[in-house]
Amino acid sequence: MSNKILIADDEASNAKILGEELTDRGYSVEAVSDGTATLKKVETSPPDLIILDYMMPDLSGLDVLKELRKRGNDTPVIMITAYGSIERAVEAMKEGASDFITRPFEPDHMALIVQKALDQQRLKREVQILSEEVGQRYRLIVGESPKMKHAVDLAKKAASSNATVLLLGESGTGKEIFARAIHNWSDRKSEPFVTINCVGLSKELLESELFGHEQGAFTGAHHLKKGKMELAHRGTVFLDEAGDISPELQTKLLRFLQEREFERVGGTKSISVEIRIIAATNRNLEVSIKEGLFREDLYHRLNVVPITLPPLRERKEDIPALSQYFLQKYVMETRKHFSNITHEAEEKLLSYDWPGNVRELANVIERAIVLGSGPNIGLEDLPGLIAAIKTTTVPDDFSYHGAMNAARRNVVTKALTQTQGNRAAAARLLGLNSKYFLRLIKSLGID
Fold first, then answer.
1. 3 state DSSP class of 276
2. What is the pTM of this model?
3. Which CATH superfamily is domain 146-310 in?
4. How, if at all, do strands 261-262 and 271-272 pair?
5. pLDDT, tens digit, for every residue of 95-143?
6. In the chain, where the domains are located
7. Are 342 and 378 in contact (CB under 8 A)?
C-alpha cells in the first residue's frame, strides 16, 4: 500500500514537479499552498510524511512545524528551501524536522531522504506499539482437523480483502493468533498490528484507549495521547472481547466503522484513518442483541466475515502436534532436557476435554517442564485432574454392562472436567441428585 505524502509549497510549479516525481515512485501525493491549509489537512486526512517549504505566506514552514509538534503530531517533516543556511537547518532540526534540504535538489536524492524518513517513522511506531503490549504470543499452528482447516481457509480468503472479520469461539481457542495471521497474510503485514482488550476497562478508559484524548480532556490528561486507532493507521486493529464493549461506546464504534472518522476525547476535529478491523468475542452476540446488551447494527458491521474457531475437545487429533510444539517451545525457554511425551501421558491428554482449550494445554506442558525432571513428560508430571482420567477404551471382556459402565464413566469424567472437579456443579450439569452422583463416582472408581 502506497504511503501518503503531503507537499506544502506556495509555488504551484515546484509542488507539481516534485509531486509527479514522487507519484512515479509509487507514493500517493497531495499538495497545499500555505501553512494554514497544511495544518487543516494534517488534522482531517493525516499523511505519512510532510514536505514543507520554509518560506510560505501566513505561516512559515518553521511555524507550521512548531505548531504540529505543539499539538503532539509526530508526522515526519522534511523542510525544503531555496535559501539554505546552517542556522535555519539547525533550527528546523531542533523543532523536530527529519531532514533539511536546499533547492535545487536531485529527484533521486529527495526520494532517498523520503524513504529514510518513512522507514524511521515506521520503526518508531512499531516500537511504541510493542512497548504497550504485554506477554508473549504463540505463532499460528495449523491443525489437521477438518474444522481447523476450514477456519484457516476462511482466514486466508479474508486476508486478501479489507473486509471486517469477526472471530468467534471459546476463551483460549487462539483468536488473537488468528487475527495476527490474517494481518500477516494481508498486504498490511508491514504496517502496525494493534491489540485492544475491550474487557476490564471503564467506558472512559476504553474510549481513550481507542480514540486517544486531548490535553486537559479530563482529570489526569496532562498530555495529548494518540489512541490505538490512530497509531494503527494503514494497519490492523484487533478488538479482543468486543462483545463486552459498553452500549454507549458501541454507538461511537459504529459511527467509526461507518465513516472511518473519530474525535479524540475532548476534541472537536475529526480524524480520518485507514485501518482494517478484526473483532473477537466468546459471547453469543445474537443472544446479547435479544437481551439488549449489543447493538444489532454494530453486529452486522462486525459480522462481515465470521470465522468460528473450534474448541480443542472438537479437534483432539491436533493435540499430539500441539503438545510437541509447546514441548519444544518451553524446552528452549527453560533450557531443560525433555525430549518427548510418554504414550501414557499422551493418552491422558487425549482423554481430557480441555475447558481452557489451547491456552490450557500450553500451561499444562509448561508446568510439566518447569516442575519435572525429564527426560520425558510422564503421568507424574500432569495435573491430578488429568492424570486421574480413565481412558475410554472398551474392556477386553466386552459385555453390555461393561460397555454401559464405560459410557457412564466417560460422561461423568467429562462433567467433572468441565466443572474443574466441582462435584456439586457436575451433578447439576448432568441433572442428577448430588448424593446419587457421589455414589456413582465411587461405584465407577473415579478419583
1. strand
2. 0.62
3. P-loop containing nucleotide triphosphate hydrolases (3.40.50.300)
4. antiparallel
5. 889 998 988 888 889 999 999 999 988 887 776 655 544 334 444 455 7
6. 4-131, 146-310, 313-387, 400-444
7. yes
